Amino acid sequence: MDVVERGETVVEFVNVQKSFGQNRVLRNLNLSIRQGEILTIMGGSGSGKSVTLKLLVGLIKPDRGQIFLRGVDITPLSEEELLPFRQRMGVVFQGGALFDSMTVGENVAYPLREHLQLSEKEIRERVAEKLSLVGLPGIEEQYPADLSGGMKKRVAIARAIVMEPEILLYDEPTAGLDPINAKLISRLIDSLQQKFFPTSVVVSHDLHYAFPISDRVAMLYQGEIIAVGSPEEMRRSERHEVREFLAGDLQPPGEGGCNDRE
Model-level pTM? Predict the structure, then answer.
C-alpha cells in the first residue's frame, strides 16, 4: 500500500448493509475516515457501532455495499487475502479480550508470535517497549486476574499497538471504568495517536471522554450515518436526533457524562 498523506481518505464505507436474521443493523452506511484523525462513531446501544468495526476488520461480511481500505475493496477478499490488511490494524476490544491463562507479557506478545518471525529477544524488547508506552513497565509476569480494570484496558492497548499498526480501532475503550481511569484511557488514546499512529477510530457512547480527543464525530442512527463533523459542529447540529443524544450523554460524571472539552 502506498503512503497516504494526512487528510486523505484511508477507509470508506459505501452503501453498506448488514442484517442478522430479521434484524437489519446497518441499512445504508456511508462513511469516510481520513488519514491522521481520531474519528469517534457515536450512537445508542444496538445502533451498529461495534458491527461497523467488525466489518472493517473483516470478522464479518456485509450483505451489500463495499468497504475500501486504501482504495482496495476488502469485502470480497478471502481470509488469506485479508491478512495483510488486518496486520495494518490494531483492535482494542470492549472487554479487553485478554487470555486469562497467559501472562501479561504473553498476551502482548501473542500477535508477534502469530504473524512475525522475531527472536525471543526481539519479542521481549518490543513487549517491554509497548507496556512502557501505556504506563505499565515491568508487569510482564503478572496475569490479567491480578490487574485492575484500567490496567487490563492498557494491556489490551499495548497488545493492539505491538504490531505497530497504521490504523487503531477502539470498541468502547472506557466502558466499565471509573472516571479517573476513563480519563486516563482517553488521554492515552490521544497521546498514542499523536506520537505514533496516524489514524484512530473510536466507537463509544461515552462522549464525555471521547469528544475532547476527537477530530471528527459521526453519529450512527437507525443503521445510517446521519451527521459527521467536529465535536463543536456536532454540538451545534440542528438535527433533533443528534441534539437529543448529546443532551443525554454530555452531562457531568454521575449524571451520564460531562459537557465540555478540558
Answer: 0.87
